[in-house]
Amino acid sequence: xxxxxxxxxxxxxxxxxxxxxxxxxxxxxxxxxxxxxxxxxxxxxxxxxxxxxxxxxxxxxxxxxxxxxxxxxxxxxxxxxxxxxxxxxxxxxxxxxxxxxxxxxxxxxxxxxxx
Length: 115
Prior knowledge:
Layout: H1 7-12, H2 20-44, H3 51-74
Helix pairs in contact: 2-3
């Protein structure tokens, strides 16, 4: 699994994430998100397509997205400035487990989740 949300990418991104505290918070969220998905996989590894598994996965995604957006709001980051970068732009777009165009519109391309 790979999440395209490293501090280096965030610093280089054109979405305004330059504050070291914001970067640290986003990195912590990235780690939490990875751990939550691993726990989900451990729980549903044999039956990842069941309705219960998909509902739990969507909850993990929604929770992570809300937390990332809260950090953006807290630090006054305009996440739409990075739209169009990395996997077509919007937050939550990408391939793999998180893909299929799921997400809520444009967001920081550097924070796009890609597995």
